[in-house]
Design a protein that fits this description.
- The protein is an alpha+beta fold.
- It has three domains: 3-67, Roll (Ubiquitin-like (UB roll)); 78-154, no CATH class; 181-340, no CATH class.
- It has helices at 50-67, 73-82, 87-94, 100-105, 112-120, 124-134, 140-170, 172-175, 190-203, 209-227, 248-257, 289-302, 307-314, 318-321, and strands spanning 3-6, 11-26, 29-40, 46-47, 236-239, 242-245, 261-268, 271-278.
- The strands form three sheets. Strands 1-2-3-4 form a four-stranded antiparallel beta sheet, with helices on one face.
- α7 runs antiparallel to α11, α10 crosses α12 (289-302) and α10 crosses α13 (307-314).
- The chain is elongated and about 100 Å long.
- Bound molecules: zinc ion.
- Zinc ion binds next to loops.
- Zinc ion is lined by residues 6, 8-9, 13, 40, 42-43, 45.
Length: 347
């Protein structure tokens, strides 16, 4: 049972908790919240309770914050943790009193000037600039860790922006919600293209670009053959040496810019080709078991063949023969491909 000293009764009394509308001035502005208050059960007067008062103050500040569009305590803590900084380290870096951030995160109200600065903390450019101007306020280790985080955040941002731009170029229809049989009924998915490329690059060492193009085509069409859905949402066009992902050069350039693959000249026997090397492992957790099975099947059946052999195979297919260069090959052609005869075990 909660008890407290009632100023009306001049006695220690039993208290009950009741939610009441409370209005107080916050920085000179009347502010109203619904808050739990302690009531004397004998006379009905409100009795001050430290814990409840604290909670109410937090609510009043939250209302004031949202009215003035100020960051909440939680938002400030999130901004700080994003960079792995302690409360003290961020205070020091910003040139504020040592416990300023600690107070804000505990609920104290920041002024507009500090709020404006805190909002910038979200931006890696602000952090990098701050490091170059005032990095000395941090220890060498703190500086190094913060710089690493900011640089990696910048890289992620660049990759994200690039990915969005490329998606708009490669598959403008999907922005309008249109996905046809040209993409196997899946909107182009840059991440899936990336992971499947990394997967083949790992499975087939010395993978040349033209061979990758055909393995992607085989995997997408094989999966469509069984499931009426492509793996990557890539569209394929007829090229002189066989089917080729639409905008293939651009897409490989994106993976290169993201530093997940490396393109290099390599001579294998009589051939010189541009080799795709993976710089990281594929992340396949977002793929279903049947999807990975398809990739394995394509790698085991065709991974050992050269780009020239795969090219010759594709030249026997109606999908390639009956089209002009640059023409898109719809996924429905998967049904007529002779390479898939026996692919799924049937005769
Ligand atoms: Zn009382």
């Amino acid at each position: 049972m909660r008890t407290g000293y009632c100023l009306e009764c001049h006695e220690e009394r039993e208290l009950r908790i009741e939610e009441r509308e409370q209005t107080f001035d916050v920085r000179g502005e009347p502010t109203t919240v619904m808050a739990d208050v302690a009531i004397c059960t004998a006379c009905g007067a409100e009795v001050s309770d430290l814990e409840l008062d604290d909670r109410m103050l937090g609510k009043l500040y939250d209302v004031y914050r949202s009215r003035h569009n100020l960051l909440s305590s939680r938002e400030i803590a999130t901004l700080r943790r994003r960079w792995g900084l302690s409360q003290r380290a961020l205070s020091r870096l910003l040139g504020w009193g040592p416990i300023t951030i600690q107070r804000y995160e505990a609920g104290a109200l920041q002024d507009n000037a500090h709020d404006a600065v805190l909002r910038q903390v979200e931006d890696h450019k602000f952090i990098l600039d701050l490091l170059s101007r005032a990095g000395g306020r941090l220890s060498a280790k703190e500086q190094r860790l913060l710089r690493e985080r900011a640089v990696s955040n910048r890289r992620d941002q660049v990759a994200y922006d690039l990915g969005q731009a490329v998606k708009n170029i490669v598959d403008p229809d999907s922005t309008a919600g249109v996905t046809g049989v040209e993409r196997g009924f899946r909107p182009f998915d840059l991440d899936r293209f990336k992971q499947v490329t990394l997967w083949f690059a790992r499975e087939c060492p010395g993978l040349v670009k033209t061979k990758l193009a055909k393995l992607l085509w085989l995997a997408d069409f094989a999966y469509f053959y069984e499931n009426r859905l492509s793996l990557t949402g890539l569209a394929y066009a007829r090229a002189p040496h066989g089917p080729m992902p639409d905008r293939f050069q651009l897409l490989l350039g994106v993976l290169e810019a993201e530093e997940v693959i490396e393109l290099g000249e390599e001579t294998v026997g009589p051939y010189t080709g541009e080799v795709v090397r993976a710089k990281e492992a594929p992340y396949m957790d977002d793929f279903q078991a049947e999807e990975i099975m398809t990739l394995k099947k394509v790698a085991s059946l065709f991974g050992g063949e050269s780009a020239a052999e795969l090219s010759r195979r594709s030249h026997q297919e109606r999908a390639w023969l009956e089209r002009g260069n640059g023409e898109i090959i719809p996924y429905t052609e998967a049904d007529a491909l002779s390479v898939f005869k026996g692919f799924w075990g049937e005769e």
